[in-house]
Amino acid sequence: MNSKKDIQTANVSSSATTAASTTAISPSRQENYPEWYQEVIKAADLAEQSPARGCMVIKPWGYGIWENIQHVLNQRFKETGHQNAYFPLFIPKSFLEKEAEHVEGFAKECAVVTHHRLEKGEDGGLVPAGPLSEPYIVRPTSETIIGAMFAKWVRSHRDLPLLINQWANVVRWEMRTRLFLRTTEFLWQEGHTAHASEAEAREETLKMLDVYTDFCEQYLAIPIVRGEKSEGERFPGAVNTYSLEPMMQDRKALQAGTSHFLGQNFARASDIKYLDQDGSEKFAWTTSWGVSTRLIGALIMTHADDNGMVVPPRVAPTHIVIMPMTHKPGTEAKVMEYCHSLQKDLQACKYNIEGQTQAQSQLQVHLDTRDLRGGEKMWSWIKKGVPICIEIGPRDVDAGAVYFYRRDQQPGKKTSMPRMEFINNASAILEEMQHNFFENARKFLCANTHTFTNKDEFYTFFTPKNASQTEIHGGFALAHFCGDPTVEEKLKQDLNVTVRCIPFNDARSPIADLMRNLRNVDSCLNNCLFTGKASKGIALFAKAY
RNA sequence: CGGGAUGUAGCGCAGCCUGGUUAGCGCGCUUCGUUCGGGACGAAGAGGUCGCUAGUUCGAAUCUAGUCAUCCCGACCA
Fold first, then answer.
1. Distance (Å, rounded) from C-alpha A498 to C-alpha A481?
2. ipTM
3. Total count of domains within chain A
4. Do residues A220 and A295 lie in contact, with contact meaning Cβ atoms separated by under 8 Å?
5. Sign of the alpha-carbon torsion through A528, A531, A536, A539
6. How far is CA A61 from the centre of its chain?
7. Quick one: A373 and A336 in the same domain?
8. Which of A168, A263, A305, A412 is close enough to A239 for a disulfide, judged by CB 3.0 to 4.6 Å?
9. Which of chain B's bases lie under 7 Å from a protein CB?
10. Confidence of residue A2 (pLDDT cuts 50, 70, 90)
């Protein structure tokens, strides 16, 4: 294992020599992936640990990305007929007890409010006083309290469907936390809907899974394998759970979003009933679906490299940074004037997103006038992952040119372009980058997804070559599976591998070809890889976060 | 909750084993100068009651006990 001392030495040498041969982030992904992840967050100034255990402070650059995620998803939710509302942070304990599986699933990770007052204690400190007759749970998710309100709002079939979303924070008291991936408190969106028919609720569940998939692929540039969760991995209380399972650069899966068909379980628990056209009283069918700030973790682990964060242009808080080079005496005024007018011209441009009929937004252009050396300033933006950095010095002013670097190319590579040409093409360059990021991630996912018809090969695939210092290994494995939970248990124990999902037979999936090939192998191999029993379908196996 | 480790300046660390006057180093920060289109260099500064509490001692960052916190590996999870 890499000692901290080694890493420090590496850092010192990289800053002492020219940076040409070294990278901004140490350790590299290859050397120590988990530590690289933490370093990227620090170097890009996305977030940091807070004094409250397991909770993070999301800093402006990270929060800017979240705001863009919110903005786009919010539009999609509204386009699909949903309305935003807000429900309380506190849930009466009895509410959580209403759905048996749900209680079991969340009981161990709830923060509980038991008092409503503080008093001065003997030692001068504050002591909780005023015990509550019924404790409140800080919401780990809002099915129960939203269900209670739905029960009041739904009377007739005419009240359905009820399509509600809320943007909120939730708290889950996990044992171990990691910035963005698993924090005690996190930000998310939770959609909750109630329907008159099972078919309609099922359609809603899959529709929202589509919304998430489209968003991840088109905006976050993260290729998605999606499918249904196995019984063991299902949301507590759900009938079916569907998830998005992108591959991170260490080839592990990250559950990036879920959509649940809740059947009538929660409607029964919360008494959501309506009078149907035939005059009979019926329970509604409900769904819930959510994505969280974990998406930013997915963004980091999909696109960031050994030089830091990489933000896909469509969700970047700033698209273009202009850095004036004003060190030559007597040139400052004309350089600054040129920079200001360039910024103005670029800000007047729309960022045209392919497939969107209307321009999505203005170009976000930042003029960085900080009193820093050029190289230092440049690297700070590389580490943040801004798509395009422009350097403007006297030479460019005289030539009427723009000298720029783009984050999808090597840091040394810079291009000079006539000013008007750049302004006219800025949006297209960003879109080209967006496309490149997605393609790179898609190729990586495909290159590290394999089909298996031999159990030993499966085990070899997931066994690190060096047990004491496990290297990045494995990936996604596709194999026929009988669905037996004891097999899942064994794989978890042997290899720490789980069934991520039963992937959809989905033409749009990045692994559609592999799925087809596996389906087409000799029928004698179409049995469960582990038991030889009849296959219930192809499952996606992987190590996961 | 089980196993392991660590708390010394904003960050990263040394010093502790073998107690001894103003506790060091690197980065960062401030000022000045020379620099500057790939992470500069020099000089001068600012910044710490060594996690907390008690004990041993003439004397504790250093020894002892307790306590709190954090991190890593498990189990649990979006």
1. 12
2. 0.86
3. 3
4. yes
5. negative
6. 16
7. yes
8. A263
9. 1, 12-13, 26, 35-41, 69-78
10. very low
